[in-house]
């Protein structure tokens, strides 16, 4: 580990049934030591991978999930092929039991096939695995997902929701970068991604600084956290994170939630539309539109539309579910013309 990389700030002694809002609203990553160490799932995993697998089988209802399967040669790094026109793994629809069988079969294999099930809603695939009150999240309504596999390296990426990642089996190492390190992480295609989110092309485990020289600056701002079973990591929205599963059997449960209303679309939609509509304008016109966006979006306040009668403000007024529905319909109509 380079000397410049610092460890994520650690907080211990939290009650999982009374998590402070200040923790969940943190804008910096936090390692919550031992937060879920009392979960039955963590206790089962403490007895070893076979006990953890047996525990999971007790909740299996035969559901099918998407598993990412790669040859041993990728060493768990789920990524693009060399030409970046495909991937080095194949997504397969498998039953949970099939995934668990494969993981059990290769526990002692020094070079197993890479196997990874990510971002799978627990209520759908293993209902009842977690008690409804396993974590108290206040008035948040999180999506609770399962991440399961053998040794893996997931490239650095961002997620829009805030994320509380709880390790329940194996160990995981997270390398995190602040959002402003975007220019130094050499992000790949926005619209063709291994698992939904654009990813860094840098192999953080062995960075090629000749090909990616600006990564040295990103590395100066990196924070690292290595989580044991029972630990949790608070990853604020849009923080870049590279994730490594370090054991032959690794399992994580995460809670995702957004701080914005459900009717809001993802900002990635706006980015894609801006690429379509503005990126190739002449430089002086892009500068004008930068000011327009600053006025209506990034520095928006009550004065922006104060000169318009309240009943006539339309999208300049407050958004709600109905207004968002009308705006989405208008945009679809414009894009389909």
Compile the SSE list and pairings.
Elements: E1 6-7, E2 10-12, H1 21-24, E3 30-33, H2 40-46, H3 49-57, E4 64-70, E5 90-95, H4 96-105, E6 114-121, H5 122-125, E7 143-149, E8 152-157, E9 162-169, E10 172-177, H6 215-220, E11 223-227, E12 232-235, E13 240-245, E14 250-257, H7 267-277, H8 283-298, H9 321-335
Parallel strand pairs: 1-11, 2-3
Antiparallel strand pairs: 3-12, 4-5, 4-6, 6-7, 7-14, 8-13, 9-12, 9-14, 10-11, 10-13
Helix pairs in contact: 2-3, 3-4
Shape: globular
Radius of gyration: 22 Å
Helix content: 10-25%
**Largest sheet, strands/sense/barrel:** 9 strands, mixed
CATH topology annotation of the largest domain:
Jelly Rolls
State the secondary-structure class.
alpha+beta
CATH homologous superfamily designation of the largest domain: Cupin
Major sheet strand order: 2-3-12-9-14-7-6-4-5
- Helix run count: 9
Strand portion, in percent? 15-25%
Total DSSP E strands: 14
CATH class term of the largest domain: Mainly Beta
Output the helix-strand order: EEHEHHEEHEHEEEEHEEEEHHH
Label the CATH architecture of the largest domain.
Answer: Sandwich
Mean pLDDT: 95
What ranges have pLDDT less than 50 throughout 5 or more consecutive residues?
none
Number of self-contained structural domains: 2
N-to-C span: 53 Å
Protein name: Cupin-like domain-containing protein
Domain JmjC: 79-274
